[in-house]
Amino acid sequence: MSPELITRRDGTKRPRRKGAVQPWAVLWLTAVWVALWHDISVANIASGALLSVGIQLAFPLPPLHVDGRVRPIACVVVYFTILWQVLIASVDVAWKVLRPGRQPQSSVIEVDLASDSDFVLTLVSLAVSVCPGSIVVEARRSTHTLFLHVLDVPDLTGLQAERDRVLTVERRICWALGITQGIKPDRTPVPPTGKPHE
Predict the structure, then answer these.
(1) Cα–Cα distance between 56 and 171 in angstroms, integer?
(2) Where are the domains of the chain?
(3) Which helix (H) or strand (E) holds 139?
(4) Pairing of the two strands 5-7 and 134-140
(5) How far apart are CA 188 and CA 175, in angstroms?
(6) Residue 170 pLDDT
(7) Residue 162, exposed/middle/buried by CB under 10 A (0-12, 13-18, 19+)?
(8) Segments of the chain with pLDDT less than 50
(9) Taking CA 142 as the corner, what is the angle to CA 136 and CA 148, rounded to the nearest 5 degrees?
(10) In the prediction, which pLDDT does 165 show?
(11) Residue 192: its pLDDT value, please?
(12) For residue 191, what pLDDT is reported?
């Protein structure tokens, strides 16, 4: 779900921010720091931990609520499905670029996501952008809409196929994370098999 909003003095709304340091974020940011320096030493780990605490205190994030029950096996399935899509898309883009003749036509498409979760919006954006041939150029948090630049989509059928691909990625992510709340009434997330949730 989206973060809780609070009202400012001027009447505008903003996300409520967490004041406390989040332990998982400290671990994650410290791991990134150590990986960037390629040095596993006490001093490097300590400096990474201090830096991550400082970052969280200086730039507090709004609380992120994920309603659902994570399915570990489903997450692994989604992960390898995305890897497979990256491989297929890489070969497809290489062929479109190297083949003689017609120049690929690009398009920008709009995709309205079914979920109102900011977490799902972020994961779908990452999963779609990692595949060659498509990149998210704008993500509207207010409407949970993605705008994608896609390579070689010459007709309306291709545009609809790209929209369906993004919505399939969203359904798989919702399925893996067990997210059923916050879905627009006209769209029910189903697992990749096409069978409705029980």
Answers:
(1) 32
(2) 18-58, 72-177
(3) strand 134-140
(4) unpaired
(5) 11
(6) 93
(7) buried
(8) 1-2, 188-198
(9) 15
(10) 92
(11) 46
(12) 46
- Residue ranges of alpha helices (H) inside the chain are 23-37, 42-58, 72-98, 118-129, 156-177
pLDDT of residue 168: 92
Beta bridge partners of 10: none
The 3-state secondary structure of 60-116 reads CCCCCCCCCCCCHHHHHHHHHHHHHHHHHHHHHHHHHHHCCCCCCCCEEEEEECCEC
| pLDDT value at residue 194 | 44
Q: What are the tokens at 145? A: 């809409």
Beta partners for residue 138, in sequence order: 147
pLDDT reported for residue 30: 92
**Location of structure tokens 């989040």:** 22
For 97-119, b/e burial (b = at least 16 CB within 10 A) is eeeeeeeeeeeebebebbbbbbb
Q: Two tokens at 128?
A: 């779609």
